[in-house]
Design goal:
With about 240 residues, the protein is mostly helical. About 65% of the residues lie in helices and about 0% in strands. The protein folds into 2 domains: about 1-110; about 140-238. It has 10 helices and no strands. The model is unreliable at about 1-10 (pLDDT under 50).
Amino acid sequence: MSRLRCRAPESNICVEVTTYIKEQQRMALAGVRGHQPDQALLSFYASMEHLCSTAGPLLDYISLSAISTATAQLWTSAQADSSFEPSANMAGFELKHFYCSILLQLEPMLPDVGAQAVSNILWSSAKLGLNPDAFVPGMTDPLVVELLQLTKVKPRHQPNAQDCSNFVWALASLSHEPADKGFIKAICNSFVMLTKCHDDSKRPTALNCANFLWALASLGHEPADKGLVDSVCNQLSC
């Protein structure tokens, strides 16, 4: 798919958008791992801008979250090459403008964003070293509030272990202290519940646990409930 068909039926647009993003990311990744990472990243920006201008209001928060995640993954791959210097390349210069445009489209959708998307958005921002607040003032704490609310809803809508771990890791990486002081306690409670889940597939992995505890320490939070540390340590020993 070289271009997104602008008149695709609305019932098919989600599938087509997802396919388009994955295809563009795959092509960009080949370039990033090759000899032209700068050009590959710029081409990816252009393809996503084309998507946004073509699909317009049909784009939902899932699609925009997928774009932010793909961008972070591509940059992580590019930076794995020690010779690639973001500040010395046009892709690095254009990144802020591109990412800002994605966040601005996401902002009005925040009240409807799901747990995985909330986590992915902040994780992507942290991976890129870009605090959402720098582009859309006051955006980071609404993401915190949204995840906090999702910890209180029915289980199938609540954040999973990776969502919790990635979100708190991102906050710590961005050195962002949540304005809502109840957030850390709530997310810790959710994480403890997940370590005790009867379904092994829903329990935190060792990496989830390590990242979660590192993030709490980095944010200067000593868990008030010793059960959190015990639960996480027990999970690590499994």
